[in-house]
Write a structure and sequence with these properties.
By secondary structure, the chain is an alpha/beta fold. Helix 14 packs across helix 15 and helix 19 packs antiparallel against helix 20.
Length: 620
């Protein structure tokens, strides 16, 4: 009944659309096939008035036509069932496919494709299809997105500043000042257990694969006891005592916390004995955050930007390309105006500028709108946040009435409102949508480095399309490529292990388990399994260590996807290593996903697998 009701509701909504909004009714079109059959389908004579960034291809129509295709034996005869193989002797990977589908002579450039597809560390990777020409606006975060920072120099500003605050303002032991920062110890995607002083790497199924207490590794048995054997509760790792390391900014918090956990555990300081791990973490967080607000970090960067900010020669051309394509651009950053001006002027001019040139803020012409001090993720959640206009000369703020003021200015209210100045502080998504004339969230593409505040929240709450920026991705790709042979061997060895186990299961099911020869064979199979397991363990450890000696591959936990990979795949429409990589593509670029497969599809897709359709319960 639910299915019937859904169909009726769909048909009614379709008729309403056709009648009320004036969409043209479908016309008939006949498709002919070489098999001699004909198939009639419905096609839309005119396009809808609303175009979505999801409208990449007509694949949805193809899915709806699957039922109708049963009337035809095959497209182009029976060729769909014939095997398609790459011709190793040919320079063109698709030559056999083109011939098999009868497309030779119809495709003008397929034969000119290179013998191998080039992959680059600067590619933009797609999780969810996106059509750029249907975007109305593209927005950018600034820190670690448009402005990349030199490591570890930039982090040390926050690390050293936080140490000073912990010791001189909060009374921590003087020895804290001797702490040394090591950014290479950490990787993105970890989880901090504030209450226990632990650092965790978990897989997509929330199983903890690696765990450290401070700087000391937690044993397997302790790790499982703490995080896997809670019979009355399953940890979600989203509770308030857990912190996800979603951004590079959190490496400073993590290292200070790990060092202080070790110091507390040594029991040498009574001051720390009276503090919980959670209290220590909270005071670290407050100290680091204060460094971002009181000038410890940003005053130093303003004095010497070339020491801390990485110049990417592709950033400005990328922004100009979007503007020239007629796509609106906006800057939405949590940094306040004074620092935003400093960083963006450096990126725009390629050097530190004097006060007179900085006050001109020529870079602002790259954007239709700039919102500093945006307080993300609250910007995307709280509809009551006030919008202030920024005076670019002195940074002073002026109240606005936001959406009400724009509406009061008449039909072109947004345009008139922005003529008074297009730099703001605070506000919320309603102000941004109103000023840019945005009707639907999926017409905005937002580019940021924070998996929660920039990607997950904008996607889940507002329906914005998203690009996740990961500078570390370039190294991950290089290492993955360099270790591809080791990964291939691991994959093949796991397949062998699985097949040997299936052989043992067949033997147990079909043979007398008391037969001495059967017992012998099963014993030998168990011994084979032990040998393979031992080798796999070492090979997997070697493969993971190639990425990071402690935490392994960022996108993997054991043999599974890491939780970090799970969130990137589910919430980032696109991801890449630099924002400037987007400038390598025109407005016409459609980003497409690969065809996804579940485990049974992956098994049957292998060339060394054949499908056995016989019923094992009916075997004699």
């Amino acid at each position: 009944m639910r299915g019937t009701a859904a169909v009726v509701a769909f048909l009614l909504s379709r008729e309403i659309l056709l009648g009320v909004y004036g969409f043209s009714s479908p016309s008939s079109q006949t498709l002919s096939f070489t098999a001699g059959r004909t198939l009639t389908r419905k096609t839309t004579a005119t396009t809808s008035r609303y175009s979505s960034s999801y409208d990449v291809d007509s694949d949805e129509e193809a899915e709806q036509r699957l039922g109708e295709l049963t009337t035809a034996t095959a497209v182009n005869g029976s060729n769909l069932k014939s095997p398609i193989t790459n011709d190793a002797s040919s320079d063109n990977r698709y030559s056999n496919l083109v011939v098999d589908l009868g497309l030779d002579g119809q495709l003008k450039h397929a034969g000119n494709l290179p013998s191998k597809r080039k992959a680059s560390c600067y590619d933009v990777f797609c999780n969810r299809e996106l059509k750029q020409e249907n975007l109305a606006a593209v927005g950018f975060d600034m820190d670690y997105t448009l402005a990349q920072y030199q490591q570890p120099a930039f982090d040390k500003l926050a690390f050293d500043g936080a140490k000073e605050k912990l010791v001189h303002k909060l009374g921590y032991p003087e020895e804290v000042l001797d702490f040394e920062y090591d950014h290479e110890r950490w990787t993105r995607g970890l989880i901090i257990d504030k209450e226990r002083g632990n650092f965790l790497k978990i897989d997509r199924h929330k199983y903890v694969r690696v765990a450290y207490h401070g700087l000391e590794e937690i044993s397997s048995s302790t790790r499982k006891y703490l995080y896997s054997r809670n019979f009355n509760k399953v940890e979600s790792f989203s509770e308030k005592n857990y912190v996800n390391m979603d951004t590079l900014f959190q490496f400073v918090d993590a290292h200070l916390f790990a060092l202080l956990v070790d110091m507390k555990d040594r029991g040498e300081y009574e001051f720390l004995d009276f503090k919980t791990y959670g209290e220590i973490y909270q005071q670290i967080r407050e100290s680091v955050d204060l460094c971002h607000r009181d000038g410890v970090i940003k005053d130093e960067v303003a004095r010497n930007p070339e020491k801390y900010i990485i110049l990417d020669k592709g950033t400005i051309p990328m922004l100009k390309r979007y503007r020239e394509a007629g796509i609106k651009t906006f800057l939405l950053t949590n940094s306040y105006w004074e620092y935003t001006s400093t960083a963006m002027n450096y990126l725009y001019h390629g050097k530190r500028v004097d006060d007179e040139l900085q006050k001109k803020n020529e870079w602002i012409e790259l954007f239709d709108l700039c919102i500093a001090g945006s307080c993300k993720p609250a910007f995307m959640l709280d509809p009551y946040l006030q919008l202030f206009r920024v005076n670019m000369e002195d940074g002073s703020l002026k109240n606005t009435d936001g959406v009400y003021e724009i509406d009061a200015l008449g039909p072109n209210g947004a345009e008139e409102f922005l003529k008074q100045g297009k730099v703001f502080q605070g506000g919320n998504w309603q102000h941004l949508h109103k000023m840019l004339g945005i009707q639907a969230g999926d017409s905005i593409l937002y580019v940021g480095d924070h998996l929660y505040a920039d990607v997950l929240r904008s996607k889940r709450t507002l329906g914005w399309r998203s690009v996740f920026i990961m500078p570390e991705l370039e190294d991950e790709i290089r290492v993955f490529d360099e270790t591809s042979e080791l990964r291939r061997k691991i994959t093949l060895l796991r397949r062998m292990r699985d097949e040997l186990e299936l052989k043992a299961e067949d033997l147990r099911r079909k043979s007398d388990p008391e037969d001495p020869s059967v017992k012998q064979t099963l014993q030998e199979l168990e011994e084979d399994d032990a040998v393979i397991k031992a080798n796999l363990s070492g090979m997997l450890e070697e493969w993971h260590a190639s990425f990071h000696p402690i935490w392994g591959a960022m996108f993997n936990a054991g043999y599974q996807d890491s939780r970090f990979a799970f969130y990137v795949e589910n919430y980032a429409c696109l991801y890449t290593s630099r924002a400037s990589n987007l400038g390598l593509y025109s407005k016409s670029r459609c980003f497409r996903t690969t065809m996804e497969m579940v485990p049974h599809d992956k098994l049957l897709a292998r060339r060394d697998v054949v499908l056995d359709s016989s019923d094992p319960w009916e075997e004699s």
